[in-house]
Specification:
It is a single chain. This protein has seven helices and six strands. With 182 residues, the chain is an alpha/beta fold. It has one domain: Rossmann fold (3-Layer(aba) Sandwich). Strands 1, 2, 3, 4, 5 and 6 form a six-stranded parallel sheet that branches. Helix 2 crosses helix 3. The longest helix has 19 residues. The radius of gyration is 15 Å and the shape is globular. The model has no long low-confidence stretch (mean pLDDT 95).
């Protein structure tokens, strides 16, 4: 049996982002379970704000091709004013005008880290709605990591509960669902 291929997308481009730290912590957990992981840097796929009158940027096709090769995709996203960030929404809008196959063919895990206690719950609800609407197999277990500066230790490991348990449950659920599709 081949190792499942899992992509990680962080919807924050900021250096030192708590969501990038959470992404790295989740990658460690998936690797420890035998998955082959890749981090997809959205900063390498620049695209203008979506406008239907514009020609589709070549970066959209490149991103779709890259994401199409994964069994599972984990999105790690900050929450901006109770919503998903424009970077993520713009990426979804551009790619979905070309193809939603990469969304339909992968198992999706959602996560968010926030400096405050709310753990990105509103952002994860919106991501769940969008990816499900586009045909994605979105896992019910999500990883909300509130008070992230205390939830992630100096090595970048996710140590706070219940987020640590949620991370393991999401990982196990994703790997099981991928194996069942196999």
């Amino acid at each position: 049996m081949t190792a499942p291929k899992i992509a990680f997308i962080c919807a924050s481009l900021r250096e030192g982002s708590i969501n990038k730290t959470l992404e790295k912590a989740l990658i460690k957990r998936f690797k420890a379970a035998g998955a082959k992981t890749s981090s997809i840097d959205l900063g390498k796929y620049e695209m203008p704000i979506y406008n239907g009158d514009l020609k589709t940027p070549p970066t959209v096709q490149k991103l779709i091709k890259r994401l199409s090769g994964f069994d599972g995709i984990v999105v790690v996203s900050p929450e901006y004013n109770g919503c998903l960030p424009p970077l993520l929404k713009n990426t979804i809008d551009w790619t979905s005008t070309v193809s939603t196959d990469y969304i339909k063919n992968a198992v999706w895990g959602l996560s968010s880290a926030t400096p405050g206690p709310m753990s990105g719950i509103m952002c994860m609800r919106q991501m769940q709605f969008i990816f499900t609407r586009l045909g994605g197999d979105v896992l019910p277990q999500q990883v909300g990591c509130g008070n992230a500066s205390k939830a992630l230790n100096e090595r970048g490991d996710l140590v706070a509960e219940p987020a640590s348990t949620y991370a393991d449950k999401m990982r196990d659920m994703m790997l099981e669902r991928i194996a069942q599709k196999g």
